[in-house]
Amino acid sequence: MLLVIGNKNYSSWSLRPWIALKMLGVPFDEKRIALRRPETKAEILRYSAAGHVPILRDGDTVVWDSLAILEYLAERHPQLWPADRAQRAKARAISAEMHSGFPHLREHMSMNTRKRYPGQGRTPEVLAEIARIDAIWSEAKGPFLFGNFTAADAMYAPVVLRFRTYEVEVRKKSYRDAMLALPAMREWVEAAEREPESIPELDLYG
Amino acid sequence: MQLVIGNKNYSSWSMRPWVLAREAGISFDEVQLKFDDDGRPRGIDRYGVAGRVPVLLIDGEPVWDSLAICETLAERFPEKQLWPADPRARQVARSICAEMHSGFQALRGAMPMNIRGRHPGKGMTPESRRDIERVVAIWASCRERFGGGGPLLFGRFGIADAYYAPVVTRFQTYAVALSPAAQAYCDAVLALRAVREWMDAARRESEFVPGDEPYASGHR
CB count, 10 Å around CB of A68? Predict the structure, then answer.
């Protein structure tokens, strides 16, 4: 199994299936493609015509998009969604909400794992989106959103790192702390800190 | 089961699960909320916490977001085969729906769904053209690999067709010139009974939502 990802410092979409695979304990090869370089597009297109990371290749199956990859993994590893079907529907709802929503947070608080931008990016629209995430996290059953780690936590993992970068406080600190303490999360953060590339237009606040 | 939707003329997100359930013969009660001028569905706070349509209520419990609703319906009604039974086809179907769910921002912004509107040629920018080319490439690839010679993306009707149905109506509203193969797919979607029913209802609606009408000449 091969997971094609972007820069660990910047690619929030890549973190989701990566951490899910790590938490499942599924061995996989990783192909990292540095984003926003002249050769980036052609390299990604070698794996998927959609032209975006992440991409999962498993035998002759190619799955692209973070949420589709999580559903693919959940078919083989059902524990990736809550066992209770009402809880599972809710987990899918908040995952899909993250997948298509929160545009202001994405724009003004883009993921930048190694940077610290305390207080930056807090427009009224961003604050409203933060309040929504805070409300979702406040219902966490603990230690993760639905008790054990699920795909919903994978979907919100990049937000955990954003809130670390922008020093956004939340009510459910135990959830944030549990996510940051995961060995897989620490492995991702350490790798991001060691990455040599920087993308100036994504270093929003210097 | 109740499905809470917005205006049929404008709400592309609502159209997907509605067309899916209706075409697949899954019965539900429709609850329609109309958008106010800010594009917020009036009365939505009663139904869900995300503040958006669509919402599916199962035994009173809300499931929100079109993609989560489609996955939940697929799980609850396996006999309907809302996703393709073939695993390889299923993963492609999931991928293209997820791609539509989070992508195509240029197309969405420049060509908002407006079923009764006719704005030929409007909204064509280099970015929306790229999105359109990608949509057409997705249709061609899916029909070639998995269409089984029929007009739909994966042979029998399913989530993927429901997911791309709003784009088909956009191509009609903005009179996007398409290859014969892409037009044949559009015609097949437009001929689906549930799509016709939704569009007929959309044309009878009279509400005007300014945020979805960038090309209207003066408000009615």
Answer: 27
